[in-house]
Design brief:
It is built from six helices and 24 strands. With 462 residues, the protein is an alpha+beta fold. Helix 3 runs antiparallel to helix 4 and helix 4 runs antiparallel to helix 5.
Length: 462
């Protein structure tokens, strides 16, 4: 099958540009050449060479287009991890972390690669080993990179080459990210839950200030767009652009140019790009900008959306992801909680006696639709601190109290990544209803009551 791909870029008007010897089409400073390739049942790799010639001489850039088999088949294991596509075979460990990638045997030898990844106890990637094909048909070591992070955080501070006497390749300086905070999510924030991570930081998105390349002793300053994508790198010594990036709506690279465009790994969403595979390392998962999908399921399951492989609700233009978990980005403002009357220290807020309605409509101190803790409505997120409210009467009443607080968390965003999204809030509350039904059964309640919260109430109310 015949196919084509585009080579586009920028060069001054006085520069003659050819791609594989073919004169480029020009429009002002932009150039474009269409390269014809042959695709089929196996993956293909087409090299290209760009020559830019002016009065100062000729500058050459070499590249290649690695395309998957046509049609491309995606195979997953029982944990929902991608194990094979049109280019690579993927290997995962018992914690669903990607530990290896290898090109298919049918891939042209110029594009064959084998990679191995290692992680620390926090799940951060600390080593990448890359192997190239050897002359005897096996694999030989090409290079290995060790990654060093900030203390108990996820921001990458340095990359070290294991093959050059542990020499540093790149070091990074971070500032305030899009979450308005410096640093990155810590171990304590993770243990506190997703809401703590989301409220404390944007996971470094938009926070990269400088990158120092130690082999050339060059420091580059990062320029970002409003969504935290690296679009420009400026050489601090010359004040000249060192790299320029353009992205598609799902982060796919449309154009990159400049001496450091490939050498710089932090690009879309200020996440680390593996040049060998094209995948972006987010922390808990890898992201494929070409397909617009994660190759593994969301670790927080449906809390990040019904589509476990979707990238921020297919809205990468307006939202961003922190660590491959959930989309807290734009469109998810922190809701303003309505004020409640002050509570004196040591005071326990008690509800008034509820109407004497029969059944489970009003039970104990917490059981009842539309009311919680004597007038503090959970559906408005207006609940006092858990320990300052009235104690439940028994296990059945405890189920209702926990349920009321979970609903309040859904409304205020603590258990819902986008509290202004009514569908996400509804899904969050429905999940709380099902949890209440199971809690009531464990408390020995039988019959209509738990059944209603499993079936009728979610359908009628949410």
């Amino acid at each position: 099958m015949r196919d084509v791909f585009d080579v586009i870029g920028k060069a001054s008007d006085s520069t003659d540009v050819t791609v594989n010897g073919q004169l480029a089409t020009r429009r002002d400073e932009y150039f474009h050449v269409e390269i014809e390739i042959q695709t089929g049942s196996g993956a293909s790799h087409t090299p290209y060479r760009v020559d830019a010639t002016n009065s100062s001489g000729t500058t050459t850039r070499n590249g290649g287009k690695f395309l998957p088999a046509t049609p491309e088949n995606f195979i997953y294991d029982f944990d929902g991890n991608l194990t094979s596509d049109g280019r690579f075979i993927y290997t995962w460990d018992a914690e669903n972390r990607l530990i290896g990638m290898q090109t298919h045997a049918s891939v042209p030898i110029a594009a064959r690669r084998k990679l191995a990844f290692a992680y620390d106890s926090m799940g951060r990637r600390i080593r990448k080993t890359v192997m190239h094909p050897s002359t005897n048909g096996g694999w030989q070591h090409h290079h290995q990179i060790d990654f060093i992070y900030d203390l108990n955080g996820w921001n990458l501070l340095a990359e070290r080459s294991s093959g050059r006497a542990n020499a540093f390749l790149r070091t990074y300086t971070w500032g305030t990210d899009l979450g308005g905070q410096g640093g990155s999510p810590s171990r304590g924030m993770q243990s506190a839950g997703l809401s703590a991570i989301a409220s404390a930081t944007a996971g470094g998105v938009g926070g990269l200030l400088f990158t120092t390349f130690h082999l050339s002793n060059t420091t580059l300053a990062s320029g970002m767009d409003l969504n935290g994508n690296v679009t420009l790198l400026i050489n601090t010594a010359t004040s000249q652009p060192a790299a320029i990036y353009d992205y598609g709506p799902f982060g796919e690279p449309i154009r990159q140019s400049g001496e450091y465009a490939t050498l710089n790994p932090f690009r879309f969403s200020t996440k680390y790009t593996d040049n060998e595979t094209g995948l972006l390392y987010y922390g808990y998962r890898y992201y494929d900008p070409v397909t617009g999908r994660w190759p593994s399921r969301d670790p927080i399951q449906e809390r990040g959306g019904v589509n476990l492989y979707g990238m921020v609700g297919n809205d990468g233009v307006n939202r961003w992801d922190i660590l491959g978990l959930a989309p807290p980005g734009k469109g998810c403002p922190k809701p303003q909680k309505k004020p409640r009357p002050p509570v004196e220290k040591g005071e326990v807020i008690a509800p008034p006696k509820p109407p004497g309605a029969p059944g489970f409509h009003h039970y104990g101190n917490w059981g009842g639709p539309g009311w919680a803790n004597g007038g503090w409505n959970a559906e408005d997120g207006l609940l006092p601190p858990y320990d300052e409210s009235l104690a439940p009467k028994d296990d059945r009443d405890r189920c209702y109290k926990d349920h009321d607080y979970e609903i309040a968390d859904c409304i205020t965003g603590k258990d819902c990544p986008c509290p202004e999204d009514k569908k996400k809030v509804s899904d969050c509350i429905e999940k709380a209803d099902h949890k209440l039904a199971n809690c009531l059964r464990d408390a020995g309640v039988r019959g209509l009551e738990p059944w209603a919260f499993d079936t009728v109430i979610p359908w009628l109310v949410h």
